[in-house]
């Protein structure tokens, strides 16, 4: 299932945009380069199955070669679904009182999630980058507490019309990014390739928990003061989601941003929410662009797709 | 029909017969959202505030 | 299956010690500490299923707290077996002309290997360390080219008495360790938690391939000039493998080392081979000790178990 | 019974009927280890030197 194919289903699920405010507890500082050059770039790409990363990999390799600092953040929940199926684990879907349907991440699902994201996809992508000449280092959000914040074990669900609290979920909300770890790897010439899980803080322990990859990328971009490029499988955000002619080229004022938010539907809602979090977190600009065009990252940076700032 | 005390205001809350652990009930007196944490005997606690999220 | 349970099977497989010379292509330099203090410690522990790591985790946390630099290397092939079984993948075992039986790592097995090692076990162990107060960063051998060397895709096998070349194996031989990456993380106060796969160099590409965890630990210890502690589930190397009373306390001369090699049987052969490689690579000492005793790492460093130097 | 040329010394190597790809044959003339890389028609190449390892 491509990201695009799942648009309709996602659209049905996402009736209600939720809380948008994210406050990062760590001091946010922009990377200042001695040469007064450009800020780093955080690129969010799909997992291996969602969006073919090859074009992005070569483009990122050229960016890195030109001296730009890049951090890659990837998702890949369709690969998680595939492995759950392969292991005969039936995912549990829950509906929130607001009508949003999502996968409930119980302990067993969490284990598979970590295996696939941090083991399979992260290793594959890091290897792809190394073959393209990029000195890539794969990291999960657990490593060095890279992506951390409170665990959410309880979720409100609607079960046959009855509101309930369901406990045992393994997800969390990123409030801290260890930007020192990323800075130090970037300074040494590495390109970090970051995947969820994040490190969830529970009452008396930390544990690996699920987090959204778009929001993870937003958190990293905010913490680094980096431009965020979110690659997807359409050209950008459309005023009419079914009409590519209505591509919104940019949003640079609160009013324009509101019109982008109003235009966003389905999985695009998530991209716009992530963009908002990145900007609030300190990112100078967010670009939503097409993963499948030539040079997808540099094109997006140069104004193809939708630019939000 | 069973009942339990509201942990917020102390009022008696009437419970329907097939309540389940985890179910959320509104206190008719103070309006608090209460979570059923046990059914036999029934016990209520203040339901945790949980922000609704926009997905994984 | 514990490591101990598999001893008999392993003993049957390991008739013939093979080539022991390992030449690391990278410049080997010992970490010189400003305070003239002790060298780092590389600790090899089993995966979650092989040897319970909890005792080692707390002990390592205390060592790190005291200022000692530690790198952890873990294995976990029983967890790989479990997941292969769960995914209905039948492992292929092959016998070499010399009589050693091993698992053949085809592409599908390699994928599971990477998932379990770098995704599941590495994340679990890194989380355990973080809960113990250690600022752990999980890495696979692919990350930053941490453990690299030629891929071996062809193996000689004995198939029904006929010698054959079987191609498509995903394994490799570590010839390079990116000790700069480890040094830099150690300098920043992190504790690297390293797992296979390694980065295999093929004709025209690099790819994630299988490597032995004991040898990986040996390569890291050699590259860092670190003391190596190999934890297992017996007290050390016994002159008579069935009699704990015959524990060999130390081997400090070539003659003593030879007697240790002669004494080693079964899976212990691998430990002794790894020890030899570590010493040849630049490690000042290797300790083989019991993972299940109190303070297993510091006890081994203090002379419990077998010390080889 | 088929045959093929030894890529090392050029001598003819006799092959038994049920040879398989991957099989290793010794050249009777020069003693080289040869790998069967095709069976129809049979073709031989020098077998790669592979050090035997002591396992994962
Ligand atoms: Zn009340
Ligand atoms: Zn010949």
UniProtKB/TrEMBL annotation, chains B, D:
InterPro entries: LysW. This is Lysine biosynthesis protein LysW. It comes from Halonotius pteroides.
